[in-house]
Amino acid sequence: FDVMLPIENLYMPPINIIVRDHRQFGRTPTIGVHVIKSVEEVDPHANFETLESFHHFGLPSVSARSNTMFKSATKEKESDLTQQELDWWAKYYESCNDFDKCRKYHTLGYPTFEVLTGDLENSHNYKGFNDFCSTQPLFRGKQKQNMDDSNIVGELKSSFCKYPLPADPDLPLPPRIFQNLPKGDPEECIVRVYVIRAYDLQPCDPNGLADPYLEIELGKQLLSTKDDYIPNTLHPTFGSLFELKALLPIYKDLIIRVKDYDLLTLDDTVGETTIDLENRYLTRFRATCGLPKTYCVSGVNTWRDSQKPTDILIEYCKTNRHQPPVFVSKTEVTIGNKYYKLSDFESNVPESKLWGQENERLALHILNLTPFVKEHVESRALFNALQPGLEQGRVQMWVDIFPKSLGPPGPPFDITAREPVKFVLSCVIWNTYDVILDDVSFTGQKMSDIYVQGWMEGIDDKLKTDVHYRSLNGEGNFNWRFVYPFDYLMAEQKMVVKKKEHLWSLDKTEFKKPPKLILQIWDNDKFFSDDFLGQLELDLNSMPLPVKRSRSCNLNMLPEVGHHVKLSSLFEMKHAKGFWPCHNDSSGVPKLTGKLEMELQLMPAVDFDKRPSGVGRDEPNVAPKLDAPKRPDTSFLWFMSPWKSLKFVIWLNYKAVIIRGLFFILLVLLILIFVYSFPGNFSFWLMNRL
């Protein structure tokens, strides 16, 4: 409408917006009121830059990082990588610069996305996605200063633009600001909500932790993951995808709520965040679906938008009054006086089998030069009405909106939290050599009653061999098998351990630890505590290779002692056999205290179930079959075998003394008998002679 306004903003009247309800009998009660006190607030030139002024076409250059990463990618074959190592989570951790959890993805140099530290609408230059229309609250009654939320009865989405008319009515009118307006009819959309994880949540339980789960609300739709709550954590990893149907603008507020599960009482709300889907749908920054860096038709970066890049580029040029793109060939396009080639974006980059058509890739590269929203993950703050203004944690997520009028969307990303794979480690202890002799027998001999104990770090199930008694030279014979089942995340190279922290805990708490095998050599004592002799720690991801001979086994094999030690992964080798050194650091200096001859075999649990092996020498005694060790005759427990004790302890060490003692006793007996019997026999002989 046309209106006469003063030139000076100081004298500008306010704009009163009144929303009324039409009822029966001509009644029109007031629903809400909003007052714009200054016209300057609705001046488009004072509030935001237009998309045209923000946009700048220019020839790009492929970044040095991209060239470097793709060059390094050629050194490793993609076929050698498992699907678990190239999942969506690898892309996420690569984007977060957490390279320890995405080693293969980082090596191949696949594209990443932006991980925002705040809300999407408040990042970059998006200004809340209010470029098309702004959102104003409607108040009950007269609008006053310092009005609380209880007086807000709704929201008004509107946009006001003022521009002067020419003084001469015959002159042409200035160009209209509102052009290419969207349809006024409700738009049915498919909304995909990806919730990755939450962190720094407010504790809700007496133990200082929480049992969080998600609740998604859109209109009358309510989805929940209550059955899959995550116990005892303030940093849960959800990996949840929710797909809903929305009728914009009737149902526009998407609420993501994090709740705390309670067994006996009502679940508490940790916090929630609200996303205005209508603003994201209407904004000229195209916040419906973020643009990825590459156009792929398969793999983890598969195109998921309902429109192809060429269609989006044509629509962009039409909306912003540019000439439509003209493809000279599949790798060349002109837009007005600008000329683009695909080689300008993909120079010195080896082509991937995951990529799509060349013209679509070129269109996507050009779109990435525009201020359109790129592929991202936003970190939204959670708030609770009971503690207004106080942040209760953050949730990392993103939302895709697909209008049904544009066709069906592509396949969704699989962001399901990584599930560990069950593995079984079989450790056969064959022998020990050069174990220090820690005890002294009552005969004065140096000896040790050797046994080996082992466990996986973080798992309390410790296994022991039997005891090799009275080892006089540090050698122990066992032929004993340890079997350790465990859960393993291959992409993160971590072992997943779930256990209850306390006896009264209802749920198990999950921990991630390196897959480390710990083996210890002990000296057995019956009446006192056992003596620790030495230890060997093997990280299954980076363990030293064994040696084939005992005399070549020393502490320089260990990475913490030696330098430039070659390390290998048992997950790649699957099998290792040989000698490893054990050491004791109690004196502050590592000391070689023994050598372990053992065999390690790693296999998935499904393969182990087909051909299981028993612990120790129990049945099924296969792979390999373990016979009872042939130990020396001197290996026995002295008070359980008294005759062996006499033979191998007393007789073996005091044979000469015993023989001399027996000879002396016999001699004394003979003398005593002679002395005792000589007088009588002599008298008898003498009487017979007389």
From TrEMBL:
Does Membrane count among this protein's keywords? Answer: yes
In which compartments does the protein localize?
A: Membrane
Membrane topology, from the record: Single-pass membrane protein
Superkingdom of the source?
Answer: Eukaryota
UniProt cross-references to PROSITE patterns, sorted A to Z: C2
Q: Which InterPro entries does this UniProt record tie to the protein?
A: C2_dom, C2_domain_sf, C2E_Ferlin, C2F_Ferlin, Ferlin, Ferlin_C, Ferlin_DSRM
One Pfam family assigned to this protein is C2
Q: Does the keyword Repeat apply?
A: yes
| GO CC term (a single one) | membrane
Read off the Gene3D superfamilies from this record. Answer: C2 domain (2.60.40.150)
Which keywords does the record carry?
Answer: Membrane, Repeat, Transmembrane, Transmembrane helix
**UniProt-listed SUPFAM superfamilies:** C2 domain (Calcium/lipid-binding domain, CaLB)
Residues annotated as transmembrane: 661-679
Output one GO BP term: plasma membrane organization
Q: What is this protein called?
A: C2 domain-containing protein
Instruction: Provide the taxonomic classification.
Output: Eukaryota, Metazoa, Spiralia, Lophotrochozoa, Mollusca
Q: What gene name is listed for this protein?
A: ORF99336
